[in-house]
Design a protein that fits this description.
This protein has 591 residues and is an alpha+beta fold. Among the domains are: 83 residues, Alpha-Beta Plaits (2-Layer Sandwich), CATH 3.30.70.1450; 75 residues, Regulator of K+ conductance, C-terminal domain (Alpha-Beta Plaits), CATH 3.30.70. It has a 5-stranded antiparallel sheet with strand order 3-2-4-1-5. Helix 5 runs antiparallel to helix 6, helix 5 runs parallel beside helix 7 and helix 8 packs antiparallel against helix 22. The longest helix is centred in the C-terminal third of the chain and has 23 residues. The radius of gyration is 26 Å and the shape is elongated. It starts with a helix and ends with a helix.
C-alpha cells in the first residue's frame, strides 16, 4: 500500500508540474525519478537503466539520422517542390501538409517542421497569403505523419517497446501503418479542405512575419549637433544616459556611411545620425539630456536596419533551449555582436523593457548583426530561423547516399534481417563515417531533454506497474464503464490519452498509459494490441493546445496565434480521429 501511495503521489506531482510549466519537463521528470528512488519505489540499481532502454536509444538514433537527411539536402529538394502549388489555398495547404506528413513518418517530426517552416513562410509571402492559414495545418500534419510508422514518433517507439516487454515481441516497423497511416491520410485531407478555414479571421490579416513587429514607432533617427553633449561620447555611454530606461543604439549614419554591427565600438561625432530603439519616454529623455535633434520629414525605413555591415533575421524561440526563461541581458547578446530589435509574443509586439524581458517558447525575435555573427548566435541560442537556410553545398551531392543508408536500415528492419535498433545504430555509424554528420553534429542532433525525460519516466512507469498501480487504475476505469461494450472502453482509453497528451509531453503520456491500457485489456480478456494501438494514436494527437506538442509551440509566434486558437481546428480533428481510428483498430486488431 505504501508503495502504491508513493507512486501515485509522485505521478500526481509530475502531472501538476508538467501542466504548470514553470520548470523544464526533463528537470521535472529527473526530479521525480530521484524522489522515487529516495522513497524506495524505484531500486537504485535500476534507477538509470532507462538510459539504455531500447525506446530511448531508438529515439536518439532517429534524431541523428534525421540530421543527416537534412544536412544532405535531400529534404530541401523535396520541400522546394511545393512552390508550384501556391496558387490556391487548398492546394497550398495540402502540398505542405502532405510533405510534412510523409517526412514525419520516417524522421523526427520536429526536424521535419523546422525544415519546412521557412518554405511555408516564403511560399505564403509569395502568394500574398497569411502564414496563419498554413502554419497550424503544417504543425498538425507533421504530428499526424508520425502515426504511420514505428519510428515516426516517440510514443510509437515506447508502445512498441512495452509490447515487447509484456508480450515477448514488439510491434514492427509498419504494424502502425494500417491504422496510423489511414488516420494520417484522412487527417491531412481534413486540414486541407476544412482545417485552414477554422483559423480566426483576425489572424488571416497578417501577411508576413515582419507584420509581427511594429518597430517603426520605436526606432528613431537622432541627429548629433556640434553643441550636443553626445559628441566624443562612446556609444555605450549614450545608451546609459537614459538611466533606468532601456535604450539601444542599433546603428549610426556618418557621412552617408551606415555603421550597424560595429556601432558599439564607435565614438559619437558631430553630424552623426544615431539609429535608436527605445520607448518614446526614453527617446524624449535622451534628446533633452544630450541635446540631440529628431530627424524629421521622413518616416523611418525598416530596410535601413539591413544596410551597411548588418542584416536582420527573424527566429523563433524553441522550448528547452538556452534562450528559454532568459533575457537578452542575461544572454549578453550585445557582446556577441547581436542586437535584439523586436520581440513578438502570441502575435503581439512587445516593447516595454525589451532587453530584460525573459524569452518564452514560441516567441519570435528580430535580431540584427553581421551575417556571420548572427549565424553563430543562432546556433548558440538554439533558436529556429524563419528564413530559408539553403542547401549545405558541401554535402549536397550526398543526398542520394543519405537516402540510401536510411532506406537500407528501414528495409533491413522491415524484412527482419536485423533488429530495428541494430539497423538504426549501423545507419548512425554510416552517416558519421561518410561525413553526413560530424561527431559533434551527431551529439547536437540528439534532443537531450527528451532523452532525460524518457530515461527518468520509464523506471517510474515500471514501478507503477510493479506495485499494482496500473491494475488499480484499470480496475477503476472498468468500474466506471460498468457494463459498457469493449469498444466504448477502447474509445475511452484513446480519449483519456489524447487529453493527457494535450497538457503534458506525449512521450510521458505513452509511458503512463501503455501499462494502463494493457491492464484493461487483460481484465476484460480482450486483445491487448487494440488497446496499445489506441494509446499510440491518442498520445500523438495533441491538437487542443500549443503546449501539447513542441511543433504547436514553434508555429505559435510566426503564425501570430493565441493560446485559444488551437482548439478551433484541433477539437474537430481529434473527434474525427477517434471516429476513424476506432473502427480501423477493430478491423486490424480485433478485440
Amino acid at each position: 500500500m505504501y508503495e502504491q501511495i508513493s507512486v501515485f503521489t509522485i505521478l500526481g506531482g509530475l502531472l501538476v508540474a508538467f501542466v504548470w510549466g514553470g520548470w523544464r519537463y526533463d528537470v521535472v521528470a529527473f526530479a521525480g525519478l530521484l524522489v522515487a528512488v529516495l522513497a524506495g519505489v524505484v531500486p537504485l540499481e535500476g534507477a538509470f537503466a532507462g538510459l539504455g532502454h531500447p525506446a530511448v536509444v531508438t529515439v536518439a538514433a532517429v534524431l541523428i539520422i534525421s540530421r543527416a537527411l537534412a544536412n544532405s539536402g535531400a529534404i530541401d529538394i523535396v520541400a522546394r517542390s511545393i512552390a508550384p502549388t501556391t496558387g490556391h489555398t487548398t492546394l497550398h495547404v495540402i502540398a505542405l501538409v502532405a510533405v510534412a506528413a510523409v517526412l514525419s513518418a520516417f524522421m523526427n517530426n520536429v526536424g521535419a517542421l523546422a525544415l519546412l517552416l521557412p518554405v511555408a513562410l516564403q511560399s505564403a509571402a509569395k502568394a500574398g497569403r497569411s502564414p496563419a492559414l498554413v502554419l497550424m495545418p503544417l504543425s498538425f500534419g507533421s504530428i499526424l505523419g508520425g502515426l504511420a510508422t514505428l519510428i515516426g514518433t516517440p510514443p510509437n517507439i515506447i508502445v512498441a517497446a512495452y509490447r515487447g516487454k509484456v508480450m515477448g515481441e514488439p510491434f514492427q516497423m509498419f504494424d502502425f501503418t494500417p491504422v496510423g497511416g489511414s488516420v494520417a491520410l484522412l487527417g491531412v485531407l481534413f486540414l486541407a479542405v476544412v482545417g485552414w478555414r477554422l483559423v480566426p479571421k483576425e489572424r488571416r490579416a497578417r501577411k508576413a512575419p515582419e507584420d509581427l513587429f511594429e518597430i517603426e514607432g520605436y526606432v528613431t533617427e537622432l541627429k548629433v549637433p556640434k553643441e550636443s553633449k553626445a559628441v566624443d561620447m562612446p556609444v555605450p555611454e549614450v545608451e546609459k544616459a537614459v538611466g533606468d530606461f532601456e535604450l539601444i543604439v542599433v546603428g549610426l549614419i556618418r557621412r552617408k556611411r551606415n555603421i550597424f554591427a560595429a556601432a558599439r565600438r564607435e565614438t559619437v561625432r558631430a553630424g552623426d545620425i544615431l539609429i535608436v530603439e527605445a520607448v518614446p519616454a526614453a527617446i524624449d529623455k535622451l534628446v533633452s539630456s544630450l541635446g540631440l535633434k529628431l530627424v524629421s520629414g521622413k518616416p523611418f525605413e525598416r530596410g535601413l536596419l539591413r544596410s551597411g555591415d548588418a542584416t536582420l533575421i527573424e527566429a523563433v524561440v524553441q522550448p528547452g533551449t538556452r534562450m528559454t526563461n532568459r533575457s537578452a541581458l542575461d544572454l549578453r547578446l550585445r557582446g556577441r555582436g547581436v542586437n535584439l530589435v523586436a520581440l513578438s509574443r502570441q502575435g503581439r509586439p512587445m516593447h516595454e523593457r525589451l532587453l530584460s524581458t525573459r524569452f518564452l517558447p514560441g516567441d519570435v525575435v528580430l535580431l540584427q548583426g553581421e551575417e556571420e555573427s548572427l549565424a553563430e548566435a543562432l546556433g548558440w541560442l538554439g533558436c529556429l530561423p524563419l528564413a530559408g537556410r539553403g542547401l549545405q553545398m558541401g554535402k549536397r551531392h550526398k543526398a542520394g547516399l543519405a537516402v540510401g543508408i536510411f532506406t537500407l536500415a528501414i528495409g533491413a528492419a522491415a524484412l527482419n534481417l536485423l533488429p530495428l535498433l541494430l539497423a538504426l545504430a549501423l545507419a548512425v555509424l554510416a552517416v558519421v563515417v561518410f561525413n553526413l554528420v560530424s561527431p559533434r553534429e551527431a551529439y547536437e542532433a540528439v534532443d537531450w531533454p527528451i532523452i532525460i525525460l524518457l530515461a527518468s519516466l520509464i523506471p517510474i512507469g515500471e514501478a507503477l506497474e510493479r506495485t499494482g498501480g496500473t491494475a488499480l487504475i484499470a480496475g477503476g476505469l472498468l468500474g466506471l464503464a460498468g457494463d459498457m461494450p469493449a469498444v466504448v472502453l477502447l474509445m475511452l482509453v484513446m480519449v483519456v490519452t489524447m487529453t493527457l497528451s494535450d497538457i503534458m509531453n506525449n512521450a510521458a503520456t505513452a509511458v503512463v498509459m501503455a501499462p494502463v491500457a494493457f491492464g484493461i485489456a487483460q481484465a476484460m480478456g480482450a486483445n491487448p494490441d487494440a488497446f496499445l494501438m489506441a494509446v499510440a494514436i491518442g498520445a500523438s494527437c495533441a491538437f487542443l493546445t500549443p503546449i501539447g506538442h513542441q511543433n504547436n509551440m514553434l508555429v505559435m509566434g510566426p503564425g501570430g496565434y493565441r493560446f485559444g486558437d488551437y482548439w478551433r481546428m484541433g477539437l474537430p480533428l481529434e473527434a474525427l480521429i477517434v471516429l476513424i481510428a476506432t473502427p480501423l483498430i477493430l478491423w486490424v486488431w480485433p478485440l
